[in-house]
Specification:
The structure is a single chain. The chain is an alpha/beta fold. The chain has a single domain, classed as Flavodoxin domain (Rossmann fold, 3-Layer(aba) Sandwich), CATH 3.40.50.360. Helix content is 40%, strand content 19%. Strands 1, 2, 3, 4, 5 and 6 form a 6-stranded parallel sheet that branches. The chain has a two-stranded antiparallel ribbon with strand order 7-8. Strand 4, helix 5 and strand 5 form a beta-alpha-beta unit. Helix 1 packs across helix 6. The radius of gyration is 16 Å and the shape is globular. Flavin mononucleotide binds next to strand 4.
Length: 198
Amino acid sequence: MSARIVVVSGSAREESKVHDVVRIAATTARAAGAEVREVLLHALALPMMDHGDPSQGELACVKVVRESAAWANGFILVTPEYHGNMSGCLKNWFDFLYLELAGKLAGVIAVTGGGCGDMSITAVKNSFAWCHGFTLPFHAAARGPDFKDGALASARVNDRIQRIAYDVARYAPVLHKTFNEARELGAGQESGVAGMHL
Ligand SMILES: Cc1cc2nc3c(=O)[nH]c(=O)nc-3n(C[C@H](O)[C@H](O)[C@H](O)COP(=O)(O)O)c2cc1C
């Protein structure tokens, strides 16, 4: 099984530094042999998720989000840090999803003004876990001073982003295959979390 990775840009704005990080992550994941799709939330213009409005499921932008997440076995999620949290538009992406993320692997990267990114990274990891997904045990943060003219200039951060992309490509297919095998066991305790998603 090969890696199928969705790289999500969690920025609502076109000029965002997030896009250069997405470019590096996607290029590296392709170099690692993965099939890659990029979901650029500023271009999709998703509506605010309304749980009481099932007609949102018919919108082309919502179908892109749900179908790409169902297709993927791994994710690289890139968020700008806003007020010590992930961006509203990335949280909105999560709110359109649940089981599409279960049993899959995510790498998480934050772009901050100057903070260490721990708060937004933890927020993204929490939401992914609450959808029963797994996250890499390390992450990356690119701060404002790490960029020059909108491009990432820090070799140290670039190195970390590439390690994340290689690891998501390496482990995502293995994890998802194992999760699917566990699901085959049925709903009993021996299937673990996978049996909760039949
Ligand atoms: C509403 C808002 C809240 C922010 N909160 C933080 C923050 O908590 N910590 C931080 O380091 N930077 C913060 N920033 C700065 C952004 O993280 C920084 O601009 C980052 O580059 C976001 O990506 P972009 O501006 O390139 O789209 C904030 C910016 C905005 C607009």
